[in-house]
Amino acid sequence: MIETILFYFLAALLLGLGLIVITRTNPIASALSLVGAFAALAGLYALESAKLAAVLQILVYAGGIMVLMLFVIMLLNLPPQTLEPLKARGAVVALAFLAVGVLFGAPLAGALFAGGTGAVPLPAGDFGGVAGVGGKLFADYLFPFEALSFLLLAALVGALVLVKKKL
User: Do both 23 and 103 map to the same domain?
Assistant: First the structure.
């Protein structure tokens, strides 16, 4: 029962922080909200017994990727005139909160008052661990893993070409 409540809390937190990321005009506020969203997602991974994914979410995304994004924000050096605040109407905000409350409140109430045991079957012993993920990654999904690495390398070269005036 506590897992269900924690799941819905982390999911609502992730949704709220994601909305803050896309509605703020200040890039630093958006980046800090994204760090919180990454932490909430890591909590969801940990709740689902995917320990390796939770740790990598914090180390890689909340650590490394966010530092990179903050460097890009500082590199852009946007003047305050270009960062106009968004004006939200009270009715739109109230409707959004109502929609989120209904989307998360109804399943939570159904789970709490269903009268079931709430027991979830445990995953396999190597689920979410280094050996299980590594075995799947380098045996079954080796080609997509290497294709993704080439795609990221191409994106890095493209970003360098865009940033540099003279090569």
Answer: yes
